[in-house]
Amino acid sequence: xxxxxxxxxxxxxxxxxxxxxxxxxxxxxxxxxxxxxxxxxxxxxxxxxxxxxxxxxxxxxxxxxxxxxxxxxxxxxxxxxxxxxxxxxxxxxxxxxxxxxxxxxxxxxxxxxxxxxxxxxxxxxxxxxxxxxxxxxxxxxxxxxxxxxxxxxxx
Length: 155
Description:
This protein is an all-alpha fold. The chain is 77% helix and 0% strand. The longest helix has 34 residues, at 56-89.
């Protein structure tokens, strides 16, 4: 059995995939916050909408994209911190926290996208979800060696 301090190659690869996926999400979140009007226009073009004219509606959309971007950044920074610390060490509680948070995001965002007029967003979710699934599957064997939810081995 591998000790919790020894990192298997597949585990290290999983951490790298998950970190890169999170970094990509952070960059996208930053684009929402910094790019504001540009990112709104980009998403409207990508999702088949027209060009926005300056209005209160446009200002609200820019605000919403900024808030969404900030939430994405915060969530993914937390995931990276978990990956680089307790998940790398094999702590099951941290791995499960990443799994549950990614699954909740994926389910809600994808269902909402499919039931509204933005089904193309579900395709983006599938790409991110697949990357998370690969990385999490590669880190799973070690993650189950050091306790889990309800254990006293968490922080």
